[in-house]
Amino acid sequence: MIETRVRVLSSSHGTSFVEATEQNGCAACASRSNCGISGLGKYFDGRRKPVAIASAAARPGDELLVGIAERDLLTVGLYAYLLPACLAVGGAALADWRGLGDVGSALAALAGVGLGLLLARIFAPTPRMHTRTIPITVTQGEHS
What we know:
- The chain is of the alpha+beta class.
- Helices cover 42% and strands 22% of the residues.
- The protein has 2 domains: 1-69 and 128-144; 70-127.
- Strands 3-2-1-4-5 form a 5-stranded antiparallel sheet.
- Helix 2 (70-97) runs antiparallel to helix 3 (101-123).
């Protein structure tokens, strides 16, 4: 299970809008000053919009642990990345076999990518997210 902590921003009718509370991926590790990829992470990192999840009992301010099973993530990844890539290669190979030249192969590859993305959109299952509330622990001497 791949999990991350989120904070509930708003909640209504069984849907909660959440934002991540911990830093994951680029800029999360100690070697970010020496890492070339962290520069890309900083470039593409912006204020993301809150994500909607189904959570009936969540209230604004609650912290939740949201998880996705590795199997679900792998399945969706195969549909989203492998299927379009395979259809692009297959389309280009078919166009080359038919003698359509470089332009025909490039167009067939683009058509394969488009078809692959369309098929992934139609047939890929939606990954199930599991949520659970993180209990707040108050240590002795603290007031809530």
